[in-house]
Write a structure and sequence with these properties.
146 residues
């Protein structure tokens, strides 16, 4: 395949993937009636149960007041809870009270779950090489910007 066909084809495929994932995530958020920040917070809390609000704030790149308001919304909705850290009673730990694997919350991860299932049918060596290629391209692109 020629260079003229490979570069735009790969970039188009990656753009299509990003667009499809973003569309699915937006549709899930609309269905659940939550904003992007709340959805990203739920996914991050799921990956880091017992996270401190300061850690969540740093991950989301928002202010202390912003993370407090976000956590308050999620607590009011019944999606998370605040627990006192037994080692430091001045600190809260945030955990999910919902199961992201159950309806309706599974909508947030359904695209990624379906994509992962599809990847299981792909050739293992081919997907490993593709992952290495993407990692390499990202490293080159990022290093050029630094």
């Amino acid at each position: 395949m020629s260079e003229e066909a490979v570069v735009p084809g790969l970039r188009r495929a990656l753009t299509d993937y990003i667009r499809a994932r973003s569309t699915a995530f937006s549709a899930a958020r609309r269905e659940l009636g939550i904003g992007e920040g709340d959805a990203n917070a739920l996914l991050h809390i799921a990956a880091h149960p017992g996270i401190r609000p300061t850690q969540l704030r740093e991950y989301l790149g928002i202010t202390a007041a912003g993370v407090t308001a976000l956590i308050d919304r999620l607590v009011d909705r019944g999606a998370v809870r605040r627990d006192i850290d037994p080692g430091d009673r001045r600190v809260n730990r945030i955990s999910l009270t919902i199961d992201l694997a159950q309806e309706p919350w599974v909508l947030l991860t359904r695209f990624d779950d379906d994509f992962d299932t599809a990847l299981l049918d792909a050739d293992e060596v081919e997907t490993a090489r593709f992952a290495e290629l993407l990692d390499s391209l990202i490293a080159i692109t990022v290093s050029r910007r630094a």
